[in-house]
Write a structure and sequence with these properties.
69 residues; 78% helix; 3 helices; mainly alpha
């Protein structure tokens, strides 16, 4: 299930890093399943990539706002 905007904005910086790591590990597992043809949902890797991008974007936006403040 994709991460919602409200959840993302309420996450702390360490939580964003932790969630990004967890999703990257899950993406690796899904790639392994795809190679062995055991992947059940073909859309899941794409959804996880989008969640990782959302997390990284939020992290970068926070870094920029700290620099300008």
């Amino acid at each position: 299930m994709p991460i919602k905007k409200d959840e993302l904005h309420n996450m702390s910086d360490p939580a964003i890093v932790e969630e990004t790591k967890r999703l990257r590990d899950r993406l690796y597992e899904l790639r392994q399943q795809a190679v062995t043809e055991q992947l059940e949902n073909n859309r899941e890797p794409g959804n996880i990539k989008k969640d990782i991008a959302r997390l990284m974007t939020e992290k970068r936006m926070r870094e920029i706002s700290k620099e300008t403040a």
